[in-house]
Amino acid sequence: MSVDRSVITEWAKPLLDTGRASELVDDLVTSGMADEVWADPGSAGALFELQGSSGATSRLLDAYVLQPGPQSALSAFLLPLPGTAVPPAQVRGREIAVDGLTVGGCEDAPVVMWTDSDDVLAMDRLRVEGVPGFDPELRLLRWSGTVTLDDCAALPLAGDILIARAARALAHQLLGTASLARTIATRHVLDRHQFGRPIGAFQSVRHRLADAFIAETGARELLENAGEPIDAVRERLLLKAGAGRAALLAVQAAQQVCGAMGFTAEFGLHRVVRRAYVLDALLGGSEEAEFDLAAQALATGRVPLPVPL
Amino acid sequence: MTTGVALEPDVQEHAGRLRDWLSERAAELRHFAERTPGGIAANVEHERALLRLLHEAGWSRWGWPTEAGGFGGPILLRAVLYDELAAAGVELPEAYVILETLGPLLVEFAPALAAVHLPRFLGGTEIWGQGFSEPEAGSDLAHLRTRAVPTDQGFLLTGQKVWTTLGQFAQYAAVLARTGSSDSAHRGLTMLWVDLTAPGVTVRPIEASNGRDEFAEMFFDGVIVPADGVIGSVGAGWAAAMYLLQYERGMYAWQRQAVLHRRLREAVAAATGAHHRPSATASIALGRALHLTHQLRARSRHTVSRLSSAENPGPEISVDKALLGQSEQATFDAVRLLDPGGMLLGSAGSDQRQRDEWFYSRASTIFGGAIDVQRDIVSERVLRLPRSGR
After folding, report:
1. Among partner residues A214, A241, A293, which is closest to B378 by beta-carbon distance?
2. Which of A242, A291, A297 has its CB closest to that of B268?
3. Which B positions 164-223 lie with beta carbon below 8 A of chain A?
4. β-strand pairing of A193-194 with A127-130
5. How remote is the C-alpha of A35 from its chain's centroid?
6. How far apart, in whole angstroms, are the C-alpha atoms of residue B65 and residue B62?
7. What is the ipTM of this complex?
8. Does B9 touch chain A (CB under 8 A)?
9. Model confidence pLDDT, tens digit, residues B211-254
10. Using one digit for the tens of pLDDT, what is the confidence trace for B29-76?
11. Within the 270-299 window of chain B, which residues sit less than 8 Å (CB to CB) from chain A?
């Protein structure tokens, strides 16, 4: 049942590095290999980290969240608008108001969405528009409109499981994005000389990158060892808080230490910066996640321990 | 995509038995829920009683080798004890911090000393001190000046050590001293086991910014250290110190995350019951503290299991130390903002403790290797950035 993680990453890396991410997703789904990969948390996480560290865009998130069989078409999974984790479909009597995003751009796929009454519905009659926005390469699509329940097919899926998967996928991709920013910055501070030495020899520069690494490591440990979640909301908050903060700290440090060069389009850092901010905001940003962790603790009077011993 | 860290079933079972014992003895243990008022000397005596209780019941002996008076089993069993004590609302004895730095050192490098002294420490009859820092050698430990000159009987020790936690109550200290030439840096150091009741030793407490005598300074004026007091071998003191630092950074961080979670739990419970709602600032600080302390738990859980399987965590253990300092400060800032009246104006014992701990948390990015040094280690030895001229 278990797959060899290094085989998966060796196969995926060249595809992601050469802009063939879509091919990777197609192969994964149609080959029937996907089930094995998804069943192994390390392999699934490694794929999303690779997607992050190569700066690639694909429909890997749809594939992981929805996990279709090899014969089924891959639907698109609807995420809430940035900065919130409120379900993108709001049920009002027989009507459903929909407004949400999909990642990786597939305008003719049926959309799967979770509602505020905890149903998961499939729907193919929504208005769709491309929203290039801050990170055009992420190929975000915005799906909106009002539909009736009769237009939708109810799916036997649990919304909270789908959201937890989406949060995990985003968190791993954010960690990959953080390490990409750090790698770019490290290369730059080794190459760039000022005052007669590489700027990476200056403590103020080194310490920013060290702090980024520390935040990334802390987030990765929590991501990999959080243990069985007590509830889906808490799980999402823990995942998004750590990985989002790590990615933001990494791109902020990179923007500073790459100096004026990092500010040019040619250098390319801006693409990583944009990616970090948009991925962080999907399913709620890291700062909101921290705030909500506090709100949850204050509302319940409890501080559950993550990571069982 | 949770991988989790699977625990051996016997460790789980052990934790379950300990939990049962803690709840059976809840009434007796309530006495140890808090530090005792009346200063650090009174508290040391208070803690001795808890050490004795845990030793007699056997719980503190698990995870230490049988040759050193323990019951054997993986080091994880020690981690279980600290975690369960904090979860049961028992204040972790400060002496356990010293135990987790010097205990592994003796077990690894001086089994004969461990066989004699570890049972005494576990039983609460002996306390040890750590003699590393000097007035002129803090972060730059390798340039320490305390000298140990070989003699017929062993060594003659002369110099000064500082910031020794509980030093004024200690019977023995592990002292890092120079046996090589004065320019031998880390190569000419030897770790010695020093009897603090020997002639020529003076120990003086130092009052810290929180008003407590948190640590002491030790003066050695021609102190005779017998030859069998060498921990490890002559000239190999640096390696012994580095070995100890893994525990000081790994297991100490684990102990502290257990305590920090308890503090956050209690602050949240108090804020939930209070009449006024916490400010937005307090909520933001609480969120950051919960998040960082959860990360610290995940990280040090991983490190402790690596130590338990005799893996060397390497330079990346600096991450643990950095996360520890950040979690400490975030936690006591959150506690302060959730209860500004108690922190700034209160006169209850818990208010005083809050102030003590807030001050002490400021030191958590200084002692045991300043966070700035940890960042240097991470950038040089993990990220492979060039050595800096600082």
Report:
1. A214
2. A297
3. none
4. unpaired
5. 20
6. 8
7. 0.94
8. no
9. 889 899 999 999 999 999 999 999 999 999 999 999 988 999 99
10. 999 999 988 889 999 999 999 999 999 999 999 999 999 999 999 999
11. 271-273, 278, 283-284, 286-288, 290-292, 294-299
Closest CA to B388 of B141, B377, B187: B377
Contact between residue A272 and residue A177 where contact means Cβ atoms under 8 Å apart: yes
pLDDT of residue B209: 87
CA distance B290 to chain A (A): 7
The DSSP element (H or E) to which A175 belongs, if any, is helix A159-191
Catalytic residue from among B126, B248, B328, B357: B248
Q: How far is B372 from chain A (nearest CA, A)?
A: 8
Number of inter-chain CB pairs under 8 A, A vs B: 179
B6 touches chain A (CB under 8 A): no
As a whole number of Å, the end-to-end CA separation of chain B is 41
Residues of chain A with pLDDT > 70, as a percent, come to 98
> How far B33 CA sits from the closest chain A CA (Å)?
18
CA gap B368, B322 in Å, rounded: 11
In which element (H, E) is residue A122 found?
Answer: strand A120-123
Q: How many CB atoms lie within 10 A of CB A157?
A: 17
Alpha carbon distance B63, B61 (integer Å): 6
**Pairing state between β B147-150 and A141-148:** unpaired
Note whether B3 and A225 are within 8 A (CB). yes
Report pTM.
0.95
% of chain A surpassing 90 pLDDT: 80
Q: What angle do CA B136, B140, B145 make, to 5 degrees?
A: 45
B290 and A290 in contact by Cβ < 8 A?
yes
Side chain identity at residue B35, one-letter code? R
pLDDT for B5 equals 45
**Active site includes B24?**
no
What pLDDT score does A9 carry? 87
CA distance A249 to chain B (A): 14
Q: Do B3 and A309 touch (CB under 8 A)?
A: no
Give the integer Cα–Cα distance in Å for A115 and A98. 9
